[in-house]
């Protein structure tokens, strides 16, 4: 059963440090760069308490981890009061889903909801997202990891909007939950691309020199649940993704 949820009040974005591009040093052991064309971004809003969500969870899991797609499973928390508390749910994800309404085309929040490149896709079972779009990228992004610090260098290309914004999302693979209450009572659920850390970056002027964004990974990670660092750059005025890049090392 899908569930709607009223739009909560928006919270301010956190501003992460942006500095001028530093001189290059020795070649990093772990890095990634965005493609010349736009990388698709797939967002799934889901909950372990929703009995219509497992098919969407399985659909997202079918996306290969090494595919040229950024897949993000945001577990919302508004189902938690109905018998089963989703251990991956966060009010920040509920807030993000509501914030996307003004640009996604959705009239309300619901689960499961799929956004592809920021657009509401109720036809998600038939959507094809396993390949890059043919659109030329208007933003270039490079990620470099040094220990637990990830640094992104973001450069506007011809056609970029006047203002950019972004968000970091750390995802994990291969989580399993045995649900013993709520709509999915007695069901064992598998989750991939689960967002475990999400941080927004406030807008900046794209015509400025290349911006450097920094992100500190929490902990050492669990080998049983491989994690991936994703950076999504968006049009600050519309919220629609412009480019994305992921780092799996």
Secondary-structure topology with pairs:
Layout: E1 18-20, E2 31-33, E3 41-46, H1 54-61, E4 70-75, H2 91-99, H3 101-104, E5 113-116, E6 119-120, E7 139-146, E8 149-156, E9 163-172, E10 175-178, E11 188-191, E12 194-205, E13 211-216, E14 227-235, E15 241-247
Parallel strand pairs: 3-4
Antiparallel strand pairs: 1-13, 2-7, 3-5, 5-6, 7-8, 8-13, 9-12, 9-14, 10-11, 14-15
What would your notes on this structure say?
The protein is mainly beta. It has one domain (28-247): Immunoglobulin-like (Sandwich). It contains three helices and 15 strands. It has helices at residues 54-61, 91-99, 101-104, and strands spanning 18-20, 31-33, 41-46, 70-75, 113-116, 119-120, 139-146, 149-156, 163-172, 175-178, 188-191, 194-205, 211-216, 227-235, 241-247. The strands form four sheets. It has a five-stranded antiparallel β-sheet, with no helix packed on it. It starts with 17 loop residues before the first strand and ends with a strand. 37% of the residues are buried. Mean pLDDT is 89; it is low at 6-28.
Summarize the structure.
With 249 residues, the protein is mainly beta. It has helices spanning 54-61, 91-99, 101-104, and strands at residues 18-20, 31-33, 41-46, 70-75, 113-116, 119-120, 139-146, 149-156, 163-172, 175-178, 188-191, 194-205, 211-216, 227-235, 241-247. The chain has 3 helices and 15 strands.
Descriptive tags:
249 residues; mainly beta; Immunoglobulin-like; 5-stranded antiparallel beta sheet; 4-stranded mixed beta sheet; 3 helices; 8% helix; 37% strand; globular
- Indicate the radius of gyration in whole angstroms: 18 Å
What structural category arises from helix and sheet content? mainly beta
Determine the fraction of residues in helical runs and give it as a percent range: under 10%
CATH class: Mainly Beta
Q: Which architecture name does CATH use?
A: Sandwich
> Which superfamily, in CATH terms, is the homologous superfamily?
Immunoglobulins
Strand order of the largest sheet: 1-13-8-7-2
Q: Could you tell me the strand content as a percent range?
A: 35-45%
**C-alpha geometry:** globular
Low-confidence stretches: 6-28
Number of domains: 1
Largest sheet: 5 strands, antiparallel
- Give the end-to-end Cα distance, rounded to a whole number of Å: 38 Å
Question: How many strands in all?
Answer: 15
Number of discrete helical segments: 3
What is the arithmetic mean of pLDDT? 89
Give me the oligomer status: single chain
Order of helices and strands: EEEHEHHEEEEEEEEEEE
CATH fold node name: Immunoglobulin-like
């Amino acid at each position: 059963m899908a569930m709607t949820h009223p739009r909560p009040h928006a919270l301010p974005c956190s501003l992460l440090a942006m500095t001028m591009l530093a001189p290059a040093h020795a070649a990093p052991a772990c890095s990634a760069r965005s493609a010349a064309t736009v990388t698709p971004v797939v967002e799934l809003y889901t909950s372990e308490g929703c009995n219509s969500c497992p098919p969407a969870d399985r659909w997202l899991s079918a996306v290969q981890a090494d595919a040229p797609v950024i897949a993000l499973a945001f577990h919302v928390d508004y189902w938690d009061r109905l018998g089963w508390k989703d251990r991956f749910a966060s009010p920040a994800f509920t807030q993000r889903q509501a914030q996307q309404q003004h640009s996604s085309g959705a009239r309300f929040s619901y689960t499961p909801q799929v956004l592809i490149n920021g657009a509401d896709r109720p036809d998600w079972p038939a959507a094809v997202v396993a390949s890059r779009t043919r659109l030329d990228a208007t933003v270039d992004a490079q990620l470099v990891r040094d220990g637990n610090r990830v640094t992104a260098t973001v450069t506007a290309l011809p056609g970029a909007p006047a203002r950019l914004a972004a968000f970091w999302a750390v995802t994990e693979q291969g989580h399993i939950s045995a649900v013993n209450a709520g709509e999915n009572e007695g069901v064992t659920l598998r989750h991939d691309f689960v967002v475990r850390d999400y941080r927004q970056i406030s807008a900046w002027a794209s015509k400025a020199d290349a911006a450097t964004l920094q992100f500190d990974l929490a902990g050492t990670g669990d080998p049983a649940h491989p994690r991936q660092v994703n950076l999504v750059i968006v049009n600050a005025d519309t919220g629609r993704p412009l480019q994305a890049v992921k780092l799996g090392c």
